[in-house]
Amino acid sequence: MHMEVVVIVPPPTCRARIGPDVGTATAMFAEPDLLRRILVSGTIAPREILLMLDAAILSEVLHLPASDLSPDLLDLSAPVHLRRRGVEAKLLAGTPIPEPDPVLLRTLSGAHRWITALRNGTPLAAIAHKAGHHDAFIRTRAPLAFLSPKLQRAICDGTLPPELTLHRILQRPIPLNWQDQERLYGI
């Protein structure tokens, strides 16, 4: 299993509002060796991450006397969540930023193109050839175009449960009724 640690860094518009402190934090993330020096220890518990920072190194980076740093700020804890998506797991700290699943998004977009082409009379074999796939690939994925608007919006916004992958959606026939779809997929 692949695990990725995701650290939420504020977007540029937010950084501009909160000032230079975020610039310092962002610069620290750009220097992995500096982060290794500042971090004395880190522990991942079932629902939280605990970090212990080196006061001397941190004060040097922040251009502050070590005595000005509160000891409470050197021992940090934050809630974390382990999210699974297929064979991959992400350890999320902070408030996750919605991120669309690129495979699911690309396939949903293709499904709409393929259904439009079918409605316009284009044979399935021609659609598959143009897309560079076999007929069965198109046939199994085209029904995504008929997902409920709520599900399609969640795919586009990246607010689907992370475990709801294209593979999981395609494991069973997609119900025709939108409420049944939403119940089946947990939306």
Summarize the biggest pleated sheet. Answer: 5 strands, mixed
From N to C, what is the helix and strand string?
EHHHEEHEEHHHHHH
What gap, in angstroms, lies between the N and C termini? 26 Å
Shape type: elongated
Alpha carbon gyration radius? 23 Å
Q: Major sheet: order of its strands?
A: 1-5-4-3-2
Number of domains: 2
> How many beta-strand elements?
5
Provide a count of the helices.
Answer: 10
Oligomer: single chain
Helix fraction bin: 40-55%
Class computed from helices, strands and strand pairing:
alpha+beta
Quote the beta fraction.
15-25%
Q: Give the overall average pLDDT.
A: 81
What ranges have pLDDT less than 50 throughout 5 or more consecutive residues? 1-10, 13-19
Strand and helix layout:
Layout: E1 2-7, H1 12-18, H2 20-30, H3 32-38, E2 39-44, E3 48-53, H4 55-62, E4 75-85, E5 88-93, H5 102-119, H6 124-131, H7 135-141, H8 149-157, H9 166-170, H10 178-185
Parallel strand pairs: 1-5
Antiparallel strand pairs: 2-3, 3-4, 4-5
Could you explain how this protein is built, in words?
It is a single chain. 47% of the residues lie in helices and 19% in strands. With 187 residues, the chain is α+β, with helices and mostly antiparallel strands. It folds into 2 domains: 2-93, no CATH class; 102-185, no CATH class. The protein has a 5-stranded mixed β-sheet with strand order 1-5-4-3-2. Strand 4 and strand 5 form a beta hairpin. Helix 6 (124-131) packs across helix 7. The model is unreliable at 1-10 and 13-19 (pLDDT under 50).
